[in-house]
């Protein structure tokens, strides 16, 4: 199967600093250059920046960013989302983001991101966390695993480029 | 906003007859020719045929078919789905199909389709039902409304082409 | 297993007429007299009256009414609900009401009730519809089945007492 | 409002050691002695032991244990659950457990428990974690907060009795 890979990018919504914006945008752009579709929560913060970055990629074409929303309203998606999936299920939508992923990439993150990393672990998804991005991505990256479940460890990377290298090989 | 329209196509899964297959395929092809993205339940029956039809369209490009699955597994999507969204939420995924739609089009259908039409009504979505396709689409088309809620009536069309005409004008 | 039966009562929310209120209250009272726990959507209309009726039963004790809410807030339950389960999942909570039931009883009803009857059918639940209550309960009762699925037909009863007789024998 | 408090007890499913079983049973028993209803995931491990403990309480009466299941089947609940709520929503049911709670108490725990603690934080729920129980309850208890959100800190207790003291005062 040569289907386009679906990469879930998870990270904090709301206000984020310039450093995080840069990481998210770089990730978005490079994922699309490497023929990956971006699945995210469709809101602001990391979710917005990763979609914004996607659109800078030379290989970008319409349909490469998917936003899975907690609300019932398509209008609540950020402007860089191509395909809008409102779930009306509040944070339970995090499960859907994770299940849609061939690989989950975490950037920084608070409680929402933590719940997504935990679910991704439960569902056996490949998880890559960008260490320098801080937040729960950094903390969990150091642990390498979440519980005693026998499965592939969490992959801890320093830079976006390193994450891309791994995704390319999947 | 000149975003691509998201059209949910709902109808029976499992075994369907040749007449229904033809309608679903025609709808899929014409939706894509008219620059609409297809949102469906991602399984077999109507869902498979509409995605199959989409791929025949001259204007078809990767990403035009989205399958929102009841299961937790991407592998359970039919082969014509480009973007696979497993929800792990059983039939509660029907809500997500309906909420993702700018317009919902019904073809034939049993209990699952009926629940989707009912939800689409509740969420105020524009609903088009193809009368000659039989099943609940035909029955509900004749009623024109589902309850006393003040909202646009259900649009009853005879042929696929008529549905496309209406969608073009949205 | 001599567990208390869980009976889902479904019907219109919002404003309802005196006749429907009476039916819902009678049903609530008689279900509890017959040692059945009531599962409902926890809001107003039929849901409120059935819980109100439950509290009139001589055999009533705390915990006999369960409200499964579409919202994230316990405070949105009606005052007669003992056990409040907010889902935060909008109308997708209808699936949970139906799955919790040993038997589903429908009174009148609009689009929401229709979606619940349809889901109850899909999940193979025993369905009893009170004909004289009108709405979708009456319409679907006349059909006796929703699609070609091989399963027990829908049970059409005239009065609450008749529904209780059937539930007693389960 | 003097409604019975709804306490969500979260912790690892599957095999658990004797020490954890003891804690869970003690918590179950004492919660019911203090007129609290237990909300849990309805499966085995901590969920089973807490329900088992509940039934030892002198003040126990039918209806004090509620199991919110990931599956579509009532039969998958453990035998100590009085009220069975199958969601058919896989781990997304964790949201419902948390939303149903007036207070969430964590015992030990792996990835599932971690996702529940994270969601409880997001939804502003009061969280009590039993430190000596290990797992994520211990780790998160030490952090006292999950992210920068302004809300009440996580309450870290050594023993079950301490948790009960706090719950009594709510």
Automatic annotation (TrEMBL), chains A, B, C, D:
Pfam families: LDcluster4. InterPro entries: CHP00725, LDcluster4, LOG_family_nucleotidases. One of its GO terms (cellular component) is cytosol. It comes from the Archaea. This is TIGR00725 family protein. The lineage of its organism: Archaea, Promethearchaeati, Candidatus Heimdallarchaeota, Candidatus Heimdallarchaeia (ex Rinke et al. 2021) (nom. nud.), Candidatus Heimdallarchaeales.
């Amino acid at each position: 199967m040569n289907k386009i890979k679906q990469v879930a990018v998870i990270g904090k919504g709301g206000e984020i600093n310039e450093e995080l914006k840069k990481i998210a945008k770089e990730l978005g752009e490079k994922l699309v250059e490497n023929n990956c579709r971006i699945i995210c929560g469709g809101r602001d913060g990391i979710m917005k920046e990763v979609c914004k970055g996607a659109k800078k990629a030379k290989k970008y074409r319409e349909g490469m960013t998917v936003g899975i929303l907690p609300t019932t309203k398509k209008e609540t998606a950020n402007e860089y989302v191509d395909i809008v999936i409102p779930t009306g299920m509040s944070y339970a939508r995090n499960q859907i983001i994770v299940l849609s992923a061939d690989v989950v990439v975490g950037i920084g993150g608070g409680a929402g991101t933590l719940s997504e990393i935990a679910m991704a672990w439960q569902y056996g998804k490949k998880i890559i966390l960008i260490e320098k991005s801080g937040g729960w991505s950094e903390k969990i990256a150091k642990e390498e695993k979440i519980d005693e479940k026998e499965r592939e460890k969490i992959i801890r990377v320093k830079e976006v480029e390193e994450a891309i290298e791994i995704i390319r090989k999947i």
